[in-house]
Design goal:
alpha+beta, about 25% helix, 6-stranded antiparallel beta sheet
Length: about 250
Amino acid sequence: MDYPNDQAPGAPVRSGIPEHGRIPKYYAVKAHIARLVDELGEGGLLPTERDLSEKYEVARETVRQALRELLLEGKLRRQGRGTVVAGPKLEQPLSLASYTEGVRRQGRVPGRSLISLDRFPCPETLAAEAGLKRGEPVWHMERVLLADDERVGLESTYVAVGRVPGLDGDFDPDSSFYAYLHDRLGIVFGDADERIETVLATPREALLIGTPPALPMLLIHRISRDADGKPLERVRTLYRGDRFSFTAHLGD
């Protein structure tokens, strides 16, 4: 198989073009628009669908399909009635580092918007999964994740009231929960188990994050333990698939 000399290591082989060389018309248009995206740079305003269809001499539906894929891939974003070039995806490390640390490392400003903070008896399913006792008081905190005031995710945290009794009074919901546990309560994280899957947001989740329901999401389930191996938190976090990628360092 022949490879282009300028083939990027992370790009699809042969730019995704089959060996027989026949590609769907929308894919060819997508490649043209992708080059235009590189020329415009972050924040650049894309021409209208009508202008693009005239430029590439294709039907507007062909342009629309190409734009849909570029939007889902995070290369474009809607702004008002127009479409602009999106910035690079946020890289979140798969580690015990908090969301706040990951976003700050990329020069962005992290934030959170509290949706709800409730207290209730721990149900059996949560108790079995998180190593808690059935019926013991549990906090559930739900927050929208922000990066430079852009909504990029939704986080649900479950933690025993006995571990953080003052959560509803002395914790700033816009700040890092991990920093609060460590700096205020002296709790040190030990290890965690994570599971990642691709899902579609529910109508409620899509509304809170501000995305269309058809946008793929990256869902992370995390069970965290403290330095003594005691269960600490159970977290369910949705990240926008068009705005996030995840990194991990692998070793022996």
